[in-house]
Amino acid sequence: MREFVTSAVTVVTVYGNDFTTPEQQPSEPQRIGQQPTGPAPGGDEPAAFRALLAGDDRVEPRDEMPEGYRRTLVRQIAQHAHSEIMGMQPEGNWISRAPSLRRKAILMAKVQDEAGHGLYLYAAAETLGVDRADLLDQLHSGRQKYSSIFNYPTLTWADVGAIGWLVDGAAIVNQVPLCRCSYGPYARAMVRVCKEESFHQRQGFEILHTLSHGSDAQKSMAQDAVNRYWWPSLMMFGPPDDDSPNSAQSMAWGIKRFSNDDLRQRFIDMTVPQAEALGLSLPDDAIAWNEERGHYDFTPVDFTELFEVIRGNGPCNEQRLSHRVRAHEDGAWVREAAAAYAAKHAAPAKESVA
Amino acid sequence: MSPEPLWEVFIRSRRGLSHVHVGSLHAADAEMALRNARDLYTRRREGVSIWVVPAAAIEASSPDEKDSFFDPAVDKVYRHPTFYDVPEGVEHL
Fold first, then answer.
1. How many Cβ atoms from other residues are within 10 Å of residue A211's Cβ?
2. Which of residues 3-32 of B touch A (CB under 8 A)?
């Protein structure tokens, strides 16, 4: 079976999106999905697989599938799972400092949800024949990535609100179409995830709304957080369509349903009125309603910064990864203890059932 | 290989008649699997009963045999109630 994606290509997921930095893109002969007509490598695809896609049916774990499809999904779902796990850190940073007990309880529930999302997604990835422990090793050794957004620091309490409103809002726009992804286990995991992300987005909005209607200091704190998180949130949708080599193939395979630019526009159209309701401004003077297009115009995103973050040069890359690796290593003896306990009790447990 | 085996999780919802597969998770033993399933899949009152089953204990039918395996025998149409003629005017049958 032909492979469409080389394993040497490092990609980063943006919460279930999938893209590369310019120098990481595959060389021309391997560049996929650039063909103008549909899934060009169709000749190598099993007929049953093509029939499933054509009928808009779901591909299930035991169905035959092209190796490229399987690998793309493993990478995308794993990196999506990694993002959920790594995303616990920036917000976890504020749990002990949340300004009220109510806010603190909500934040803990949210971070617990993120852990759950990671687990649903690792389970979905494992249906493709990979092992969670291996995926985590790849995260820890830097061979697999996580969303660039979590390499930004949370400097104030308002950042927790901005992450909920903008980052989780962008994630929802990305993820809702994934509920109809061609791979059944991923689609089903996304249905659960999306329901819970709505809670996250609303609680973020509420935090910012409270701050922007509070004291001057609170309002300026909220505005500062929005200013810092706006552009990184837009970058979560990935590079422009003409510079996104994985997108066309992912769309042909039914993994991705809309282009990066379409989703980014949808997010902006949704967010501008919400910013007005918050009484906060977005840090882009070019934002204006375009009657003709029926969309908001905005300044094109400068992706230089995104690619720097993906390369590992973001503000918190080092800190986030070393924290994760340390937690894993320091927890090794606990995992060993649990395994020893399970082994010791396995035999008597069987007898008591009988 | 992960030291924690994979478990499949089935949940019967509040008004559900049967347990429905909701996902899977890793846990060292059945008790931890149950506790984690409680935390993971019933945070919002989704269920009232949980089954966990080691994934290794499940045998699945093969998609390759889907057609032959599930094809109902066409010569057994008498399995369907519509096969039987009912005289005109007979009710509640």
1. 25
2. 3-4, 6, 23-26, 28-30, 32
Which residues from B are below 8 Å from A133, CB to CB? 1-3
Please count the helices (runs of H) and the strands (runs of E) in chain B: 2, 3
Per CB-CB distance under 8 Å, the chain B contacts of A128 are: none
On the 0-12 / 13-18 / 19+ scale of CB atoms within 10 A, A233 is buried
Q: How many CA atoms lie within 13 A of A222 on its CB side?
A: 24
Q: Regarding beta strands B20-26 and A295-297, do their DSSP bridges make them parallel or antiparallel, or are they unpaired?
A: unpaired
Residue type, B8: E
Q: Extract the tokens encoding B87.
A: 């005289």
For residue A117, the chain B residue with the least C-alpha distance is B40
Give how far B80 is from chain A: nearest CA, Å.
28
Asked whether A252 and A39 are in contact (CB, 8 A), the reply is yes
What ipTM was assigned to the predicted interfaces of this complex? 0.72
- The reply to whether residue A349 touches residue B30, judged by beta carbons under 8 angstroms, is yes
Which chain A residue has the Cα nearest residue B3?
Answer: A339
Alpha carbon A148 to chain centroid distance?
9
Q: What is the pLDDT of residues B62-73, one digit of tens each?
A: 877 777 777 777
Q: How far apart are CA A241 and CA A263, in angstroms?
A: 11
**pLDDT of amino acid A222:** 98
Give yes or no for a contact between A221 and A212, defined as CB atoms under 8 angstroms apart: no
Interface test with B, best of A132, A194, A328 (most B CBs within 10 A): A132
User: Which residues are bridge partners to B24 per DSSP?
Assistant: B8
- Residue A163, amino acid: I
What pLDDT band is residue A13 in, cutting at 50, 70 and 90? very low
Mean pLDDT for A194-210 is 92
Residues in chain B: 93
pLDDT grade, residue A351 (50/70/90)? Answer: low
DSSP state for residue B12 in the 8-state scheme: E
pLDDT in tens, A211-226: 999 999 999 999 999 9
Could you tell me which chain A residue has the CA closest to the CA of B61?
A62
Q: Is residue B31 pLDDT above 80, yes or no?
A: yes
**Which one has a higher pLDDT value, A343 or A18?**
A343
